[in-house]
Amino acid sequence: MVLPGGSVAAAAAGPNVHMFDLLMGGRVLTTLGNHEKTVTSLCMDSAGGRLIAGSLDHHVKIYNVQSFKMMYSMAYPAPVLSVALSADDTRLAVGMASGVFSLRRRAVSAKEQALAAPAQRARLGTHAHFTRGAAYKGGDDDLRIEQRRKRSLADYDQFLRKFEHSRALDAVLANNRTGLTVVSLLQELVHRDGLAGALAGRDELGLDTIVRFVVKFIDHPRYTSVLIKVAETLLDIYGDLLHQSGRIAELLVRLRAKVRTELRLQQDLTMVIGSMDMLMAACKVSHAAAVPAIEAAATEKPSIQT
Question: Where are the alpha helices (DSSP H) in the chain?
Answer without folding.
Answer: 110-116, 127-130, 155-161, 165-174, 179-191, 195-199, 204-217, 224-238, 246-299
